[in-house]
Design a protein that fits this description.
Radius of gyration: 19 Å
Number of strands: 10
Mean pLDDT: 95
Helix content: 25-40%
Number of domains: 2
CATH architecture of the largest domain: 3-Layer(aba) Sandwich
Length: 335
């Protein structure tokens, strides 16, 4: 039996996450759909990777020293990752977060010892947007560094240097496609760049929720949003520094309802409790798998990101009253 090697320090637990073959999505796509289990990171999300690389980069550049503080604006998961990394390295954390994100994320950040600042959700152009608020707080706090996950390319380096080589090794170089949704752009761009370095023929696809502008940008060259989504942490209206030069070959737009269908099936059929971003990613992977099958026969392999645990959304995604308030289907077992 293969055994994982022992880790010399707790931060070595970030990354090297398992890859699992998803039975239902594979059958739907007519090819192999693999999920990268990012909920297995210490902070239970893919954002632990960006957090570690961003903090290490700030240290390497001499911007973050003993007794320092890391400040970030986030939908929650990056903040959780930063709080854990900062704790392990002896730093303080200030997290700015829109007040419409899940209660579980807020409670987790407080439990980790982060100072949590909640602001109303607003458009990026508004100076009170959570990103701009976090930048100002960093400027006003002595010894602080602003993580700037959206435009700090240490974020995508985490996936160029970590996620992509892991996928390539785990699938022994047999990868045909990769897709995921975009929040900062770091995961899609970085993993795409890393995989293309191994094999230019690997197809990289954007999976965009409704309410985001990138699907139309990559399809038609215009940043234009349509509809809305309740998915947390994904959906982008601009080309961030992490997205610049992303090798995106095709794009899909996925509704919350379709994402919810996969969230329900993965829990009911395969025992995986995931968030809506993971459901949207899986729906995109199925769409990419079908497209690759049409273009090149069967036997294809597509990888996507299982972003975080569904336990982070018990008061929202797994709550019947909340789902009804958002006019979303209620899982059978919650009725």
């Amino acid at each position: 039996m293969n055994q994982l090697p022992p880790r010399e320090k707790t931060l070595d637990l970030i990354g090297n996450t398992p890859l699992v073959l998803l039975k239902g999505p594979s059958e739907a796509a007519g090819c192999e759909i693999w999920g990268k289990c990012e909920f297995a990171n210490p902070g239970a999300s893919v954002k632990d990777r960006a957090a570690l690389w961003i903090v290490n980069d700030a240290e390497a550049r001499g911007e973050l020293g003993p007794g320092g503080t890391v400040v970030e604006g986030t939908a929650g998961n990056t903040g959780i990752g930063i709080a854990l990394v900062a704790n392990a390295k002896g730093y303080k954390t200030i997290i700015v977060m829109p007040d419409n994100q899940s209660k579980e994320k807020m409670d987790t950040l407080r439990a980790l010892g982060a100072e949590l600042v909640l602001v109303p959700p607003t458009k990026f152009a508004d100076p009170n947007h959570f990103v701009h608020t976090s930048r100002r707080l960093a400027e006003e706090t002595e010894g602080a560094v602003w993580a700037n996950q959206f435009d700090n390319v240490a974020n995508r380096r985490a996936h160029i240097e970590g996620t992509a080589p892991e996928i390539w090794e785990q699938l022994e170089g047999r990868v045909d496609g990769f897709t995921c949704a975009v929040g900062t752009g770091g995961t899609l761009a970085g993993t795409g760049m890393g995989l293309k370095a191994f094999d230019e023929k690997i197809q990289i696809a954007l999976t965009d929720p409704h309410g985001a502008a990138l699907y139309n940008y990559y399809a038609n060259g215009e940043l234009k949003a349509e509809g809305s989504s309740v998915a947390e942490g994904i959906g982008q209206g601009r080309i961030t520094a992490n997205l610049e030069g992303a090798p995106i070959d095709t794009q899909f737009r996925i509704s919350d309802e379709e994402g919810m269908e996969w969230v329900a099936r993965l829990l009911r059929e395969e025992g995986l409790c995931l968030g809506l971003s993971s459901g949207i990613n899986v729906a995109g992977a199925v769409a990419l798998g079908k497209e690759l099958g049409q273009n090149g026969g069967g036997g294809k392999r597509v990888v996507t990101i299982l972003c975080d645990t569904g336990f982070r959304y018990l008061s929202s995604l797994y709550n019947a009253e909340w789902l009804q308030s958002k006019k979303l289907p209620v899982f059978d077992w919650l009725r």
